[in-house]
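Could someone model magnesium ion with this protein?
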Amino acid sequence: MSSQTIPNGLMQRAYLTPNRVAVETSQTSLTFQELHKRVQKVAQQLSFNGVKQDDTIALYMKNRVEFIEILHAVSYIGARLLLVNTRLTNEEINYQLTDANVSLLIADETFLMREFQSSITQLTLPALKSSPEAETDFQKTWNLEETFTIMYTSGTTGHPKGVLQTYGNHWWSSVGSALNLGLNEKDCWLIAVPLFHISGLSILMRSVFYGMKIILEERFEARAVNEAIENKEVTIISVVTSMLSNMLDELGERKYPHTFRCMLLGGGPAPLTILEACVNKEIPVYQTYGMTETSSQFVTLSPEDSLRKLGSAGKPLFPCAMKIVDEKGNETSEAGEIIVKGPNVTKGYLNKPEATEKALQQGWFYTGDIGKVDEEGFLYVLDRRSDLIISGGENVYPAEIENVLLKHPAVKEAGVTGVGDEKWGQVPAACIVVNEDVSDEELSLHIQQFLAKYKLPKYFVRVEELPRTASNKIIRRKLSSFIQKRS
Ligand code: ATP
Ligand code: MG
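Reply:
Sure, complex below.
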């Protein structure tokens, strides 16, 4: 069977609509043609530095135009790119560089001082940019089954795993997103999420497939982002909950212009309070569910359902299928594990045949997340399977309790986990970061207004901060040590 190919994304885009703006930053603006020219040069400079077809090189870089140039240059050579989360420790980065057998690491000049794996050749951006150019055989087509990018999961469940993302995964992810959100020639997607996450990378891929302008922010800053939406005709932005809540605070009484059509909210659970605040301010918020392994969104709430189904992550994108299964793998209408199938799902984890075999069964990817589908087919993501608490035979979802805790004005952050209990097997316990003093009694009364008694945490432990991954997700399995230490 011959594999399917499409033209190289950026080359084709530069041919189709050369003069459209591809990317704008606070410093520069490039058309697709200009970007293509720069990428050709960078590809030749990478070749000079020994990068060949099928090599894996790593990129350790903040959000900047050169990130985009290097990403595409790697595809012009036919190599693979490992995107490194810049917030990780040296030890975590070394693990990835070794695991992925990286031959060359390209880093921002600001990160020069870090000691990465000594056996790996390191090149700073200025060194790359001043390298001579070597003759290079550009790859004019993309084989959809070939791996293009490698990205490690955030590691809430243990060691991060290297996810293989193919050209086809990115292509289909972009197609699926456009079929749901629609595509408009005036679209402009603002990136204030890291490019080394699938949330950011997927926007770069959409930009070339759609011929769409992106505005790239070096980092998230609520004021700058709100101003860009108000004054720069941004139509879509991808956010996580903490970004959205800062944006709402900064926005105050102002409203976004009607040209702004989509606030894509994903990456983790979204408290209802935030979604309701968006409805009140007429912000077109779209909840979405996805992961590194599905090359970004997999399930998204369509515009017409966003108000009616507040709190739901929606239905799968057009090319994708989803089921909820019980412990035995049988489809169920109750809460169960979310399994997904589709052309944007990874072909597996790098060097982890066992983890791959466990996650991918008969074409279905087992997400490790628990969800429930309502009678109309809308998904509600409940929690991670590994964080589920079983108390006296009842399933208790930490996220549900955290959501209720967050409704209390004194609670700034909340993390819930299960602790051993003689009578019930396990009971929930909460770690909280508070804004102001609040008694356990008051918190208990607050929770009992919303939740059944067996969901009431046995302990409330005040902590300075919650343990989080480099992607800012709570590592619930680490909460139990706080609870054991409680005074
Ligand atoms: P690891 O797999 O190493 O533990 P991770 O799963 O946090 O890391 P990512 O791929 O970055 O790494 O995150 C995807 C996960 O984020 C999903 O599997 C899910 O648990 C959570 N998530 C994403 N979107 C939502 C959502 N809308 N509601 C609830 N949880 C979500
Ligand atoms: Mg995961």
